[in-house]
């Protein structure tokens, strides 16, 4: 296995380092060989996502599902390429569906000066992608034994994290980063920075054995406690 293309996280689950550990996508494989891809990085990351399939002994015809945590160009940018190569449409939380279909980022936080500036500059920020349907909070997807949708809005209206229940692997998306330690995402990139903080408690309400981040390396040692401690320090978790 080409370990520089994929990082094993748990049985049937891999991380795809798309720009070192800083931008990540993920692969999940069913026992019958069906493959699900989750987040596809920036536009130039599409071929790297496809190369990762070969690293686990799979190919484009094995891909049966494409998922996105949210409709930002560093997550959805490579999705158009992957959709063309696999012939599959994307699934994303229903509140981000129209943004994915039109290739436009959700609004930035208007309470922040930089957020207002980014809003004015953001025009057609990634190639539109075909969307099969919108996901809803709490839905259990038939992916590799069960992938739970956890709506964690704030970074975008439809931002979702995902819990792979059989292995306890939590993909946080951009609800929280692990870049030089656990931290919040960049405030001005959020639709509502306050809501991002207010909904992060959902990450520790589910039991997980490994926390995987779309920005930063995974946490394998007591990840739930590490995130809990961070939220306590930040004043966003009671008890």
Q: Could you characterize what this model shows?
A:
The chain has 239 residues and is of the alpha/beta class. The chain has a single domain, classed as Metallo-beta-lactamase, Chain A (4-Layer Sandwich). The protein is 23% helix and 24% strand. The chain is built from 7 helices and 14 strands. It has helices at 46-55, 73-76, 79-86, 97-102, 113-121, 193-199, 223-233, and strands at residues 7-10, 13-19, 23-29, 35-38, 63-67, 90-93, 131-135, 140-141, 147-151, 160-164, 169-171, 177-178, 182-183, 210-212. Strands 1-2-3-4-5-6-7 form a 7-stranded mixed sheet. A hairpin with a 5-residue loop joins strand 3 (23-29) and strand 4. The longest helix has 11 residues, at 223-233. It is globular and about 45 Å long. The model has no long low-confidence stretch (mean pLDDT 93).
Number of helices: 7
Q: Name the CATH architecture.
A: 4-Layer Sandwich
Shape: globular
What's the name of the CATH homologous superfamily?
A: Ribonuclease Z/Hydroxyacylglutathione hydrolase-like
End-to-end Cα distance: 44 Å
- CATH third-tier fold name: Metallo-beta-lactamase, Chain A
Arrangement of strands in the largest sheet: 1-2-3-4-5-6-7
- What's the CATH C level? Alpha Beta
Helix content class: 10-25%
Protein name: MBL fold metallo-hydrolase
Pfam family, one: Lactamase_B
Keywords: Hydrolase
GO molecular function: hydrolase activity
